[in-house]
Amino acid sequence: xxxxxxxxxxxxxxxxxxxxxxxxxxxxxxxxxxxxxxxxxxxxxxxxxxxxxxxxxxxxxxxxxxxxxxxxxxxxxxxxxxxxxxxxxxxxxxxxxxxxxxxxxxxxxxxxxxxxxxxxxxxxxxxxxxxxxxxxxxxxxxxxxxxxxxxxxxxxxxxxxxxxxxxxxxxxxxxxxxxxxxxxxxxxxxxxxxxxxxxxxxxxxxxxxxxxxxxxxxxxxxxxxxxxxxxxxxxxxxxxxxxxxxxxxxxxxxxxxxxxxxxxxxxxxxxxxxxxxxxxxxxxxxxxxxxxxxxxxxxxxxxxxxxxxxxxxxxx
Amino acid sequence: xxxxxxxxxxxxxxxxxxxxxxxxxxxxxxxxxxxxxxxxxxxxxxxxxxxxxxxxxxxxxxxxxxxxxxxxxxxxxxxxxxxxxxxxxxxxxxxxxxxxxxxxxxxxxxxxxxxxxxxxxxxxxxxxxxxxxxxxxxxxxxxxxxxxxxxxxxxxxxxxxxxxxxxxxxxxxxxxxxxxxxxxxxxxxxxxxxxxxxxxxxxxxxxxxxxxxxxxxxxxxxxxxxxxxxxxxxxxxxxxxxxxxxxxxxxxxxxxxxxxxxxxxxxxxxxxxxxxxxxxxxxxxxxxxxxxxxxxxx
Lengths: 316, 298
Fold this sequence. Notes:
heterodimer, A: MetI-like fold, 17 helices, 2 strands, about 75% helix, B: mainly alpha, 13 helices
């Protein structure tokens, strides 16, 4: 009896091992396919994550990570004393908050309006036109903005013809901010509607019919049927956007910024580029990048947690 | 007079609210068209007219000199051809990796599937940042090679998950019957799954292609050799040339190294945009489908 008891676990582990090998054999093609994507992720996604240890070193490009001197948190201490870092952080947050306030509701409103339009052909044509800016690069958009809003551009010419004063869209604080934000809204508003329009097609038509019979006004239908129908989509996109509060794309601020507006246009991504790549302070720039990644992850988890606490769907 | 069919099927007249909505949408659509009209007008106008600010949405002092300049500029044409080849190469590499990654992960029986999926998804929310990637590209000896514009951004995990969703939604019975007939997993992928997923593969290829065509940041970081500049980088150099405002870039091109008239800038913007304007309307449906699938995935 004892012998049997002793032997049985061995037998089980042997069987387990066989099953493991059999599974490997059965799925050998699948693993072969996975090899390259997995290697890709390791090299181009996880190796840079390993590379963040540069932030804790006095990184020397010739010595590499292995040969560089460890400095603990000195790099972070140094950065947190820099005014230029706080300026970049503050500008990143400010631009993202403005983008959230102006840019987040815009596609929702446009989607609701488009959903109210019943002229199929008209809808199709305008949608094609409204989606177009999404496919333009920021370099193209930046070029257009420069040509249109410079002092001799179309908009100022138009203002001058009306007898109004010129506005320095590209060099004064408030006009520049307005330009930056509205161009962002303009670029995203059309494309952003797709996801909401898709959610709206999922709303039960009978709800609208029932409310028609009850004599509901259009606004009430939008408020009580359409908006609740797209609420979970709104939540998910809001969580994602809050998670991105400290991260900011590079192209848009870089192309639209210039030396006259750098006090409010220099953001974390352009700061990292300037400090890291232009000046070669790799440790500092890496530390700023790491700070951004970590805060971003915390914000995302936090927003997701709060959404779930409020009884909404999270992103995971 | 103007009537319409509501969702319920009854005909009703257009209300004031309907007209307001339509006016608003038309006005918004105009803001998407006006910049192009202005670019075309600038590019076809004489420099004198531009400097004296006479040009609105219609060319003044009509001339096609700037387009002649661009089309006879060997460098510009070279960059255009190079960008097209680069975009095709990038899209092919990305799609290959995405398909190889997405198909095995549809199989629930695959050992380690959840681990690999989590490892992929994690990279969507956390990254090492710009500088470690830059050092990596440098250490791999890819600076100033075409590979620096292909490999670091090859395969997006988001697209991989979209494709995995597509694959999962294919009818299972087809794959099962092929498996019973002795088809290997690779055979099933090649003979059944891929032919059935051509629309989704087209969609994702377009996403990748647009990303590459519009990509600028990596070229700014990794490329200093003019022969390897993609279109956007070339355009940036033209636009930022002699911009009194621009000094962030600092290096060659700015500081009045050479004068680029506004009409040439506008023509260059159009030259870079035209490929997109040509293909976009025909392919719009695929893009929209792609976003929808991404949305269903949630």
